[in-house]
Amino acid sequence: MTDTIDTIVEASAADVVADLTIEEKASLTSGADFWTTKSVERVGLPSILLTDGPHGVRLQRADSDHLGIGDSVPATCFPPAVALGSSFDPELLERVGSALGEEAQAEGVGVLLGPGINIKRSPLCGRNFEYLSEDPIVSGVLGSALVRGLQSQGVGASLKHFAANNQEADRMRVSADIDERPLREIYLRGFQRVVEDEQPWTVMCSYNRLNGVYTSEDPWLLTKVLRDEWGFEGLVVSDWGAVNHRVTGLVAGLDLEMPASGGRTDAQLVAAVHDGSLAEADLDLAARRNVELVQKAVRNARTDATYDVDTHHALAREVAAASIVLLKNDGVLPLAADASVAVIGELARTPRYQGAGSSQINPTKLDSALDEIRVIAGAGAGAGAGAGAEVAFAAGYDADGSSSDELTAEAVAAASAASTVLLFLGVPAAQESEGFDRDDLELPAAQLELLDAVLAANANVVVVLSNGGVVRLSGFADRVPAIVEGWLLGQAGGGAVADVLYGVVNPSGRLTETIPVRLADSPAYLDFPGEHSHVRYGEGLFVGYRWYDARDLEVTYPFGHGLSYTSFEYADAAATASSDGIAVRVTVTNTGDRDGAEIVQVYTSVSGSSVVRAPRELKGFAKVALAAGESREVEVLLRRKDLAHWDTRVDEWVVEGGTYTVSIGSSSRDIRSTATVEVEGDAVNAPLSMNSSIGELIEHPVAGPIIMQAFAGGGEGDGGPNPAGALLADPAMFKMMASFPIGRLASFPGMPVTMDQIEQLIAASNGR
Predict the structure, then answer these.
(1) Taking Cα atoms as reference points, which of 97, 132, 106, 107 lies closest to residue 118?
(2) H helices, E strands: number in the chain
(3) CA–CA gap between residue 253 and residue 276 (Å, rounded)
(4) pLDDT tens digits, residue range 312-355?
(5) Which of 89, 239, 371, 642 is catalytic?
(6) Is 239 marked active-site?
(7) 123, 288, 304, 723: most buried, per Cβ within 10 A?
(8) How do residues 480-525 score in pLDDT, each as one tens digit?
(9) 379 vs 141, 348, 372, CA distance in Å?
(10) 249-258 b/e with 16+ CB inside 10 Å = b?
């Protein structure tokens, strides 16, 4: 049998398909069970195993499901995407992807379902913990790194959820109704980058509809955009249960339905071929892509693969520490190892380290912050690692977030006896999960009451957060000296938190999503989650920081924000344009007395742009590690394709020419240095008509010079003196008339052009 498999794996996929019956070809396009593809024993084609990720290998033992209910084999639970994004570190994420690939190989997994790179449109989305950012460049760069690392180990990625899956409410039916520019520039841009740069083995279509059409049966999305425009070469797999109509989906470009349908939809395909409603060539194409996926997985499988549990746990701790964001610090951090500390909050003892649902991992080991704090404090006090007698603990609340007078009294007593309080607060697991959205941005009321009681006893409080989506901090951010955003940090998060609190690791994480003052300030507030299975993306391009910055709204902490235990200065910014984009250089100096890492963020804006734009858009970033006192020139290339906007007139990406302001800083609102550069634009031949405006004709590369010459000619028109010369000579008049349709203006007495001439000019301009 092994020889047969080897032969089939090395054969041409088209030849394999040519040897199959219609029934066998149809069988390849749906699963054999919950997690495996079908084999075709007659020709020796094996099945392969797909399983959930994206931050660990969730290989279930039995009783398979897609909601994290069934037990799974132990695997390293790396930090979920909400934390990974805040690292802003592609090299680190590539290492995580590689480690995931090693574990998948060891478990015989051919495709790991991830990463998820959907945009965080609303802070209420229940699955935001699985996504990287509110910004498409961050999502694309970091998503590419994860795919690159995973596939370097011979395991396929499944880029998900394609596309516009930005809420859990009514997720199986809701139509995300999005205009062309935001769809392309915000919601598809990250997917495009990962597909073009890394060619993931599979792309997973989402549950929802997009502009009224189920993504699982949308030929525009799955074929025209994904394959024809972006050049995707792999297989499109459905999210589990996302198929609406199998025949329509296959024709649209959906190659594999998961999980198994018990043969029901296979029979639909066979019947459709026989009755002529499905071309056998379409079935052949989907079958071929499935064969190619199996061949890749089998060819790259390593039956002797293993991984080192401790090494991966250490990596998980390193990554978690790099993902923690120090939001505020009035000098209380880092702690001395021998500091008098009280740890309060059940989350310190019983960590919430991942979200619920299909990504839920059974960790190989699990660190608590309380234990790890006691290790550092015990060693610092000379009592031996792990002694930790000087670190008091009080639960303060139960695991579900509720409290009692007794628990509060114990917490107040512990706080009163310590110099510094480490207060762990967070969102209970029951409030954040796949399958439903959050109701608000609030921490549990009992936790906030506990915070008030602790502050009354000891003002020196460090709040440490555990949450998959942002929480409202405006109620207490100005009343505590320090806030540490701990997100969901995976199995080694407890040690990572301790490392940051005590300065073993200098925090370098930065926010990849804005923390608003209140929910009502958020961009999608009035259009989330929609009604009658439609949600209108009324904020358009203005997602996340683009919205807050355009409206100059106060935020609690802006996109890109994060503090360090050292300080950085920026100087000598310069920008140079070329055919590749804009090369940005800036000198960054660590001006403090600790080694640290800075995230250099580069934003652009276009002076006098002809299209609607946000005040600043992130176009590139770099993480730079600097020793105390060290200076280094940092270069960030802003790719030319990332400077482009989607021009709805021609349905193409277009780089607008003009003066670009390049703003370099440590958040969208902390700009340290700027430079300007002239960028040559793309020629755009927008189609003209008799309803095109005078201004549009003047801007057109063909029509513009001709119409300007005619208007500037002065002299006599058909009705006497030419009024067009006066129109050009008077700026106010020209501004008023620039929007006037040329077809109507040509009929005015005295104009220097006739209707026939305008029609000829339009035909010539449009290439006819």
Answers:
(1) 132
(2) 26, 28
(3) 18
(4) 999 999 999 999 999 999 999 999 999 999 999 999 999 999 99
(5) 239
(6) yes
(7) 123
(8) 999 999 999 999 999 999 999 999 999 999 999 999 999 999 999 9
(9) 40, 19, 11
(10) bbbbbbbbbb
